[in-house]
Amino acid sequence: MIVSILTDWFKRSNKSERLWLLAKIEFKLRYYENKLGLFWALIKPLMDIAIYYVVFQVIMKQNIPAFASYLFIGLIIWNFFLESTTGTVQILNTKKYLYEYSNMNKLEIYVSTLLSNSIGFFFNFIMFLLFFNFIERGTSHSNLQTLWIIPLFINLYMLALATSLIISNIYVIAKDITQIWQVFTQVLFFLSPILYNLDKFKEALPTFDYLNPLAGIIINARKITMEGTSPDLKLFMFDFGYAVLLLIFGLFLLNKLGSKAAEKL
Question: Which family is this protein grouped under (predicted)?
Fold first, then answer.
């Protein structure tokens, strides 16, 4: 059943062109009539950084080197995951016209939506590199290890896609998932090493970096960009494994529940 979804998608022609076109349209609509355009994608993490910097560095005195950059990379990873999942809870309803009145595969709708979020992610990532290397000037600088961001982002993308598939298909039969997901993401945010010193995080929650795939991605992203070292490969393999398993489950739900979405929503 899962294989049939993927086979159907791979058989279709002009997949790349269609996905990219949908992603561009989605991205342009998000910032339509905004004079600052793409910079709105940067404003939110900057505002979050300002708030958390004052609370955790000035008031609580975490004393983390290059704390603004430390927050920056953590928040752009978190924001991509949050926007990609909360923004797709009702996607089978809001974009019903795409799969009902065209030959689009449902999976393409998810992939193109997350691709549009990817544009904002890489814009913010470039801003982060400029900030860390030329403005905050940490104790180390980014080097070729930074290229590890590509497999790390693929891992993040797969995790966000899998989660989107799961919660949006559950929404078909249980609308309460919207409220549940809002609460869950708040808990997940504070159980991820976005705001805290990593040593204190590991001391308070031993092995939790292996149980929370987002935590592992954030930790490895800081290692490759801020420390200029290789990622923790064991942690990376755990995170990738989580993403694959969740993606298989998400595709299973899409096959079981997604086919009934047009009738139920």
Answer: Belongs to the ABC-2 integral membrane protein family.
